[in-house]
Amino acid sequence: MPQPSINTPVPGVDTFYPLNDPAIGSILPTSAYPQNTKIPKLFQPLTIRDTTFKNRIWVAPMCQYSSDNGHATDWHLVHLGGLASRGVGSICVEATAVVPEGRISPEDSGLWQDSQIAPFKRIVDFAHTQGTLIGVQLAHAGRKASTIAPWVHLNAAKTRRASTWLAEKSENGWPDDVTGPSAIPFADDYPQPRAMDDKDIAQVEEAFHAAVERCKQIGFDFIEIHAAHGYLLHNFVSPLSNHRTDQYGGSLENRLRFPLKVIERVRKAWEKPLFVRISATDWAEGPEQGENGEWRYWGLEQSKFFVGELQTLGVDLVDVSSGGNYSKQTIPVGPGYQAPFAKAIKQAYPDLPISTVGLITDPKQAETYLEDGTADVVTLARELLRSPHWPMYAAQALGVAVKPASQYERAWLAVLTPKE
Ligand SMILES: Cc1cc2nc3c(=O)[nH]c(=O)nc-3n(C[C@H](O)[C@H](O)[C@H](O)COP(=O)(O)O)c2cc1C
């Protein structure tokens, strides 16, 4: 019997999208593509809880400074939707603030009120029609809140630089309502934070919980908690930004108390995959621990302890980044410069899925990190902005056939030609 010649629709959707089967970014069957006998790790699925990620090329969270009072707009639909239809295994929506004063910039996205649910749901629903999983990074900017967008601070040509990072009230900022563990500013041209009291701490914990409930309504597939880059949870764990003398400061256990409290609360409320992004080091000078045993800044040894606690709480994956909490940081930036941190953490916790991020641009480089046990997933940011079709280019470079969107098939005939 000949098959009916129908452009099959995605089922259960109130408009027409062609169904991609298998999903965009999935390896095609060996029966048709002998070159797919050995599947590169990049294109092997990964199952976490009941969720199967179709490949291991994931989109890093990337602030767009383009939200309308915390609401996603059509920019986000086009930007994230474009990635959803080009073969990545997962998309993490940008740092999304759980309270308005927890935004990095006035134009950050947010989930502090119900009106922010619908614009996100539209994007998530679209990603799902393209067979792509999508989650969100829940965040509080801590002492780095109320700042201006990078291109407002310094244009690309470097011909115009603002005198400060601070977003004033007249620039829609809230410089008098910036909080952190201690009243220590990140740098001279950043806001002066106020040390959080117990009430502030309880309110932020509640706000994370409320945002999780909104994530459920939106249908996000996972949540990532932002505990990196010098934002609130990183502020608490690092001795550089946390000088508290109460139960939330001082010893390593005390500095971890608030971040772990938030993450435990989220874990209890959220059954789907839960990830945490950490900074593995502050990139400050000298040893992490002084000769007297005192922790001098946040570094890999404390990160390992932190990750152990995260695993105990039931966190499903740790995304290993670095930096952002020390204004004089010197980072030896180069290809995969953060991969050694991921590898050290993976070695300490072999059963815990780990993601590596940071200057991963080349498919063979990316594949190496998965092959040599550095990480289980590669997360890309800028390379995917330059090259949203990167998963298809990676398939081409690694010599396997991977499904593009049917609408784009004619652009990928080289990848789609069966080879012995
Ligand atoms: C435009 C842009 C926005 C970013 N926004 C976030 C963010 O919202 N949350 C976060 O954890 N990291 C953010 N980052 C950092 C990236 O997620 C990533 O860790 C970093 O760019 C290094 O990866 P790459 O070399 O692949 O770009 C951002 C990076 C860029 C380029």
From TrEMBL:
<feature type="domain" description="NADH:flavin oxidoreductase/NADH oxidase N-terminal">
    <location>
        <begin position="41"/>
        <end position="396"/>
    </location>
</feature>
<dbReference type="InterPro" id="IPR044152">
    <property type="entry name" value="YqjM-like"/>
</dbReference>
<keyword id="KW-0288">FMN</keyword>
<dbReference type="GO" id="GO:0003959">
    <property type="term" value="F:NADPH dehydrogenase activity"/>
</dbReference>
<dbReference type="Pfam" id="PF00724">
    <property type="entry name" value="Oxidored_FMN"/>
</dbReference>
<keyword id="KW-0521">NADP</keyword>
<keyword id="KW-0285">Flavoprotein</keyword>
<keyword id="KW-0560">Oxidoreductase</keyword>
<dbReference type="InterPro" id="IPR013785">
    <property type="entry name" value="Aldolase_TIM"/>
</dbReference>
<dbReference type="InterPro" id="IPR001155">
    <property type="entry name" value="OxRdtase_FMN_N"/>
</dbReference>
<dbReference type="GO" id="GO:0010181">
    <property type="term" value="F:FMN binding"/>
</dbReference>
<protein>
    <recommendedName>
        <fullName>NADH:flavin oxidoreductase/NADH oxidase N-terminal domain-containing protein</fullName>
    </recommendedName>
</protein>
<dbReference type="GO" id="GO:0050661">
    <property type="term" value="F:NADP binding"/>
</dbReference>
